[in-house]
Fold each of these.
Amino acid sequence: MAKRPKGAIIGIGELQPVRYSEGKTTLGLIAESVQLALADAGITKDEIDGLLVGPQVGETPQHVPATVSEYLGISPTMSNTVDLGGATGAGMVWRAAAAIEAGMCETVVCVLANKNEKGQVPRSPNRNPIREFDVPFGASGANTSYALLKREHMEVYGSKQEDFARIAYWSRKNAQKNPKAIFYDKPVELEDILQSPMISDPLRLLEIVMPCAGGAAVIVTSEEKAKQTKNNAVYLKGAGEKITHRAVSQAPTVDQLPFAYSIPHALKQAEIDGKDLDLLSLYDCYTSVVAVQLESIGICKPGEFGDFVRSHTFGHDGDYPLNTHGGQLGFGQADLAGGMSHVIEAVVQLRGEGEERQIPDAKYALVTGNGATLSETTALVLGGEQ
Amino acid sequence: MTNISFPEPTITAVSKPFWDKIAEKQFFLQRCDDCAQWVFYPRAHCPHCFGSNLTWKEASGKGKVKSWSIVHRAGHPAWQERTPYAVGIVELAEGPTLLTHLLIGEQDLSYQLPVEISFQSLNERLLPFFQKKGD
Ligand SMILES: [Zn+2]
C-alpha cells in the first residue's frame, strides 16, 4: 500500500448555492470562493504557491490554471486542472498533499465554481464513445445512466425503492438544520420521494440532485505550516482512488464498482475501521451512489444497504451522521463545486463549528467524490488531530 | 414528430467498419488475434492485452439484459416524443457489453432476459436495437 499522504486543510470558503446565477462569471465565482477561504485561513494570496482548478469548459476551455492565476493575481510554482467529474473536489485535496510532499509547493488553493444561467446551452460538443454508442439509442444524460445502475442493484440484490428513498429522506431532513441549503425549509416525507415523478424508471425526481450555481475553495498546506495557522487544522489521514470506466455500458458489475476499492484503501491508510467514522460525508448525486458506498465502507455487506438504512439513523444525533449539511440532494450540487461541499462539511464538523448541526465528538470523517457514472471515485479520511 | 432529428452516431475512422456492416444488417465486432477476446466499442488497440491485432468478425447478435430503464424524461428532445421507451445494457454472448434501445414492453423486461439484435431504421440510418429472443 502506498504511504499515507500528509497535508492539512487550513481554510475553507463556500458560496451559498443558488438555482440560477445572474450577472456572474465562473472566474468571478472562483475569486469569491478563494477570497473566503483565504480569510478563513488567515493568510494572504501571496502565501499561495499551488493552484488546482476544475475544467472550466466553455468560459475558459484551455490554459485554465494560467487564466485563473492571472485573474486571482497569484503566481504558483505548481498548478493543474483536475478533471474527475464529481470526484474533483476530493481528488484535489489528495493531489495537493502529494504536490506538497513532493516539494513542488507548500500551500495549495483548490477551487471549483460554476455559473448556471437560465437557458444555458450545453458546454461543449461531445465526440466521445458515449456520444457515438449510447446517445443514438435514446440514452443521453446522467439520469438514465444512473437509473441503469440502480436497476442492476435492485435486480442483483433485491433492494427496494423505499431503501433508496430513505437516503434522500435523510439528506432533506438534515438540510433543515442548514440555512444555506437550497432545500432549507423544504422538508419531504418518505412518501413524497416515492410518489415524485418518474424520470428514468426506476429513478424518481427526488432521488436526483438539482443543478445550481455556486463555488467552493479549500486551502491545503504542509502539516508544519498548519500548526501556525489560526484555525484548528484538519489533517489528511488516508486516501484512496479508483477509476474503472466512463460509459455506464462499460461499467463493471454492480458489486465491483470502484468505490469497493477506493473507500477501503482510504480507511486502511488511516488505520481505522468503518465503524470508527464519526461522519459520513458521501457524494450523493443520486441515492444509489450512497447505497453503493455504504456497502463499500464495510458497515454493511454488499447488497444489504436496505436493511442497514432501515435499522440506523443518519441525522445529527443519529448513530451514523450522514451528509449533515444536507448532501447534494439537500444542500445543492453546484456542478463540480458540489463535490467540494462534502470536503467543507467534514472540515466544519471536525473543527466543531457546525453550530446547531454540530455532531458530537467528531474525530474522523470519510469524504468521498464520484464522477461520471460511478466511474471516478475518490475517498479521503480526514481527522481533527495530526 | 417535429423537425428535431434524432442524434446520430459520431462515427470515427476506427469505428466506421462497424457502422458499414450495420448498414448491411450485419453485426461485426472486433476480436483480438493475440488474446482471443472480443472488443466493443471499436478501438485501435485491444483493451485486454493492449495488442494491436484486431480483426473484424461476425458476432452472434445474441445476449442477455444486464440492466434496463424506462425513460420518461429523455435527455434529447427528439427522443422525448417517443417516451416512455426502454433502453438497456446488453451483455453480448461474446462478452462485451453495450447500451442499446430495447424493443420490449415494460412488463416483459427482466434481468438476464435473452435478447437478439433487431436492425431498426432511424433518420434513415440502421441501428442495432435488441428485442426479446424469438420475437
Ligand atoms: Zn487482446
Amino acid sequence: MATGQLALTVLMGVFLIAVAAWLSRVEDWRSYAPLSGGGGYGRETGTAHEEKPAGLIRWLTTVDHKDIGILYGLYGTIAFIWGGLAVLLMRVELASPAQDVIEMSFYNGLLTSHGITMLFLFATPIIAAFSNYFIPLLIGADDMAFPRINAIAFWLLPPAAVLIWAGFFLDPLTGGQIQAAQTSWTMYTPLSAEQANPGVDLMLLGLHLSGVSATMGAINFIVTIFTERNNKVNWANLDIFSWTILTQSGLILFAFPLLGSALIMLLLDRNFATTFFTVGGGSPILWQHLFWFFGHPEVYILVLPPMGMVSYILPKFAGRKLFGFKFVVYSTLAIGVLSFGVWAHHMFSTGIDPRLRASFMAVSLAIAIPSAVKTFNWITTLWNGKLRMTAPMLFCIGFISNFIIGGVTGVFLAAVPVDLVLHDTYYVVGHFHYIVMGVIAFGVFAAVYYWFPIYTGRMYQRTLAKWHFWLVMVGTNLTFFGMLILGYLGMPRRYATYDFNPAITPMQAITALHQLATLGAFILAIGMAIFVWNIVMSWIEGPIVEDGDPWSLKETNQHGHEWHWHENRVNRSIVAADGGEEEVATDGGEDE
Amino acid sequence: MGKTQTFTGGRRVVLTIYVVVVAIAALTGLILGTFVEGNLLAPKFLGLIEFPATPLGLAAYGALTLATVLGVLLGLVIYVSDRYAE
Ligand code: HEM
Ligand SMILES: [Cu+2]
C-alpha cells in the first residue's frame, strides 16, 4: 500500500513537471504581461480577441476573461448539482430514524463530498464566474492582467474535482479498496490522519489543487484592479462589487496558502509517518488552529462578494443610490481584517484556556458590527425607495431577510455558554446554512438574473424566475429553520441515524422535524431544476436583448460601465449585423 | 422590452421583513415551549421581566426581544432616512 501511494505521488509530480515544461514551450509568455511597460491604463494588452476558433477548441484554448467566466459558471453549476444530489440522498436517509436507505459509510462519504464540493467547487468558482466576466468590464480594462494565468487557474479545477470525487468512482472498480473520503469538510485529526483509505489522499490532493487555483485567481484580481483600471475609474468611484472582490482576493492570498501547507502536513502524516497532528508527538488541536485560521476567513471569502453583488444590484431596483457607500466599503475592509482574529470560536469546546475563549468571544461579537452596518445600509436604501420586484430584486430582499436570521443565530453561537450547549448540534448546521444557502447562493442568483442579458445577449423567462425564487425561499426556510429547532432539541450533527430517550426528548418531534427538513430540501431541488431549465432554455432561445438599457437604469442615473459596454455591443451589432465576433449579432432578427 | 413598470413601496417591504422575522422568533419560542417540557428556565426580558416557561410565554419572550432589538435598528433607519436624504 505504502509503495503504491509513493509511486502515485511520484507519478503526480512527474506529470505536473511535464505539464509545466510543455506550457513553458508553447508560447512566449512575457509578450502578454501588460505590466512590462510599467502600469498600463487602458493600453492594448495584446489579448484582444479578433478571431476565435470555433467549437470545442475555442473553449479549451480561450484566454478571454468573458469565456473563462462562463467556464467557471458551468463548472460551478455542475458542482452544485453534484453536491445537491448528495444531500438529497442524505435527507432521504434522515427522513426516518433507522438506517434504511444507504450504508453509514456511504452517508459519511456523501456528507464529506457535499461540504467540500459546495464550499470549494461550487461557491468559490461561481463567484469567480462573475468576477472574471464583470470585473474587467466594470473597471474598463481590456482583460485580466494575466489572461493566461487566468486560464490556467480555471483548468486546475476539473482535475481537482476528479480527485475530490474520485473515491466514489474507484470504490466499485477497486472492490472497496479505495473509498470516498469520510472525514467531513473539517478533516479533523486524528480521524483524518488514521483512516487508511487512499480516497482521503486523493481528496486532499484535489483540495490542494483547488487552493492553488484560487490563489492564482486572487493574485490576478489584485493586480488587475490595481493596474488595469481605466483612467476614469479611481478608488473613490470604484464600484462596490470590485471592492469586495479586491478584499476577498486579499483574504484568499493569506488564507489558502495556509490551508495548502496544513494539507501537505496532513498528507505527510498519513503517508510518511510524520507526527504533526497525531496524538502522540503532535497535536490534533494544532490541526484545528491551522484549519480554522484558514476556515473562518474562508466563510468571509465566500460571503463578501455576494454582499457586494447585493450592494450593487439592490440600488438599481430601488431607484436610488446605495445609502452610505463609503461605510459599506469600510465595513467590507473591517470584516476582512477582523475575520483572521476569530478562528478559535470554532474551538470553544476543545478545552482551550478560558481567557483565550473570552477574548475570541469578544472579537467574534465585534465582527457582527460591520455586518450590521451593511444590513443597516441596505435597509435604509430600501426604506424610501420605489422598488421594482424583478427576479434579481426578489433575491436581494430574500438575501437580506435570510441574513438577519443567519446573523442573529450566529451571534448566539459566538457567546461561549450558548456555544458549549449547541456546538456540534444541528443548530450550527442551521445557522451556517442560512448563510451559505440563504445568503451566498441568493446573492449569486440575483447576479445571474441581473447580468443575464449581458452574458447571453438574451432575456430569461420572468415567470419561471419568480417560481424559482419562491420555491427556493420557502425551501431554504423550511429546511434550515427545522434544523435550528432540531439543534435546540439536542440532535447532533454528522449522523445518519438518530435515537433519543423518549422520556427526555420527544422522538416524534425529532422525526417530524427531520421530515420537514427533507421536504424543504425537495422543494429547494424543484426550484433549482426550474432555474437550470430556465437558464439553459433562455440561453438557447430566449428573446434577444436589443435594448442597451434593459433594466431602465438610465432613468435613475445608474447605468453602470458593464451596461455601457453592453450598449456599445448592441449598437455595433445593429450597424454591422454580419455575424462577427459577437453572438447577439448572428441572428439578430427584429422579432422580440 | 416593455418599459411599463410597477413599483412597490420600500417601506412596505421593510416592514414586512420586520414582521416576518419577529413572527419567526415567536414561532421558535412556541415550538420550543411545546417540545422541551419540564427542564426549561423562565427567560427574563432584558434581564428584568420574567416570562413563564410555557409555549406562549416563550413565544411572547422571543417576539418581544427580537421586536425590540430590530425595532431599535429600524428606528435608526427611519431617523437617518429623514435626516440625510441620499
Ligand atoms: C457571514 C457569513 C458566515 C458564514 C459563511 C458562516 C459559516 C459558518 C460555518 C460553515 C460554520 C460551521 C463550522 C463547522 O463546521 O463547525 C459556522 C459556525 C459558526 N459560526 Fe458562522 N458563518 C457566518 C457568520 C457568522 C457570524 C456573523 C457569526 C457570529 C458573530 C458566526 C459564528 C459562528 C460560530 C461561533 C460558529 C461555530 C459553532 C460551533 O462550531 O459550535 N458566524 N459558520
Ligand atoms: Cu468562524
